[in-house]
Amino acid sequence: MLQIKNLHAAVEGKEILRGIDLVVNAGEVHAIMGPNGSGKSTLARVLAGQETYEVTAGEVLYEGKDLLAMDPEERAREGVFMAFQYPVEIPGVSNTYFLKAALNAVRKHRGLPDLDAVDFLKLVRQRMKLVQMDESLLNRPVNEGFSGGEKKRNEIFHMAVLEPRLAVLDETDSGLDIDALRIVAAGVERLRQPDRAFLLITHYQRLLNYIVPDRVHVLVDGRIVRSGGKELALELEEKGYAWLDALARSAPGAATQAPAPSPAVPVPAAGA
Amino acid sequence: MTGQATEQPLRAAVATQESAAAAVTPAVTPAVTPAVGANPAASGASGPVLLQLQQGRDRDLAAAAPYLADWETFQRELSEPPDLPDLPDLPEIRELSALRQAAITRFGALGFPTTRQEEWRYTNLAPLARAAFQRAPARMVGGGGATSPSAAPVAGAPRLGAGVVARWTFDAAATLVFVDGQFAPELSTGAGGAGGERPLPPGVEVTSLAAVLAREPRRVTPWLGRHTSFQDQPFVALNTAFLHDGAVVLLPRGAVLERPIHLLYLSTPFPVAPVRRSRHAGAGAGAGARAVASAKPAVPAPATVSYPRNLIVAGEGSQLTVVETYAGEGAYFTCGVTELVAGPGAVVDHYKVQRESREAYHLATLQVYGDRASVISSHSISLGGGLVRNDVNALLDGEGIDCILNGLYLADGRQLVDNHMRVEHAKPHCASHELYKGILDGKARTVFNGLIHVHPGAQKTDAKQSNRNLLLSADAIANSNPRLEIFADDVRCTHGSTVGQLDADAVFYLRSRGIGEAAARSLLTYAFASDIVARIKVEAVRHDLEEYLFARLPQGEVVRQAV
Lengths: 272, 563
Description:
By secondary structure, chain A is α/β, with parallel strands linked by helices. In chain A, 36% of the residues lie in helices and 26% in strands. In chain A, the strands form 3 sheets. In chain A, strands 6-9-10-3-11-12 form a 6-stranded mixed beta sheet, sandwiched between helices. Chain A has a 4-stranded antiparallel beta sheet with strand order 2-1-4-5. In chain A, strands 7-8 form a two-stranded antiparallel sheet.
């Protein structure tokens, strides 16, 4: 479903991603972990198409198509969804109506007719339950005055309504108390299905207590330094990121800024 | 001292401002000979102003000349009504004549301001000064005749397109329609206290100024010009000089109007060949006549000028909503003044919807006078016009007044929209809250100049002023200058202004949900305006504005779906 090959990206001339290689198949849940500043969120935003990030090398194929050539809205309509780390407040735009406009834009792209008001409301009611969202949040402006937890739940709610094929969750767990975390995780678990893939970007292991990933990747300094099964997350929790920093420094070529081959994924020699 | 922004330079600049402020305040004196006596023009110009003007290049006197000539014509129209017996020689009529005379004299001295004057620094009137206009002749009406069906239709009415009036009107307690500044009784409804299906409450008077002046001028002369100084405001002077028609809304004590009063001003393109008036043919060249006479073969169609003069007086404890709408076709010049007086405890909700044509000049002043415990809100929705200047002056002259002044202006292409605000806190315990928002695109230029002036002794003043501008293009320019002058020491005053662009993160957020870029930008633009839109209490006005925004914003249909 998603193939990332030797992805390099920079913001304001500073290189953040320095050769990412990753393959995510339909139905899989991958977790990307890493310390602050390792490039986790940059990866999410590059996948979603934020223009402030410049892709300097590499390619990303989504269902065989060149994802990087698409506008952000085109990616969304093709089924890519990103849950924001910091969802934006939009006063004056109703959460429900906005979602309806978004859903109809996606449906139009897929050759489906607009959902009428009745069907849309039915869908919304059903999906709200997934994230135990208070109905009052539906009629409020998008994210305006929402608590941190409400904003994150609203992101999952948007995802549930838009039914993406690839969902990228950018630190959706950060700033959530344990109850909210459980609710968000349960929502994601319910949306897990064979034709849908998830990329969970997180700083902490605790989210992975509730959503069990198929693969875990550790990102340090713009490179995946380690990949493994769900047990890698536990190992990381135990040993801390300092362990990985050491790992990254010892990786061949790290000091010379060339991409380091990750132990798990073979990397073609590039960026030289 | 809790005032947050009492900057020293402002205080220093106050000396000259003070004299202007003082000129406004005598308003408080009870009206014995109010119309003229209370007007500072009669008592001579203040020193610094004259000095400044004598220096020359800050004013264009030549531009005033056609208006002075047309005023002579106007005087004859007033003194020689064609089909009516001579008006009785009432003292009020003489006062009014003196007021007009003082105003035209003052206008002649002030001329057209140039950008060398601080108050007009960003608003270049040269195109207006060069343009020629033709005024619809003063329409003389008999006592009460203005609202009777037998009154002849106004000259401009046939030039209105089919359905134009219906397009602008809504369900109101009364709708007064003016065409090229002339009251059009045949197009109006519910006016004159005659009532349609639902008559106005007893004692409520909603009629044309011309009718009141013909029938019972003393009903309005105590108020006309009482709070509106033309000393330093050339276009208030010009409007006052041509004071004749407009709307009069008088609410007696305790009267409550549930539905709004609607004042609709429509301007039409004047016919290419000016209508010759048999009685005064050749006598005194008006502005329009001058344009036609001025030799060049391809003379542009003369445009109309109108001088709407509205007087709204809400008696003690009364309640009123009034909506002014300005619209039109082609090039023309609207020079308006609205005087709004809120008596003790009165609740007044005022809206001005400026939808003039893109070739139009619109220069208008709203003068608000608040008595104790009145609750006043005024919303300025400025969407049309080529060159627009809105002056809003409020004098809070009693304790416990709550005054809200909101505004939304949209400008694109080469539109110039200038909002000047002046709020005078003359008494303690008053609140004034101003929120003006601008959306600029293309090469538009806007000006916001707001002054909050807190007089000595006006303790516990709570004044807020905020101007926010959204720039949608790199070529648009928003000038913003909020000012505070505070002479009391126990007040809370804040002001602020912002000029910014759409938040790139927000645009990206919307796009990442599948909304196209143009629609995302439009949605956020709408969102920027939405708090002003939401504060409009008259459903028809709000709905109209929403529809306007959907039509004007790219991909407006997506916006309509999403809000």
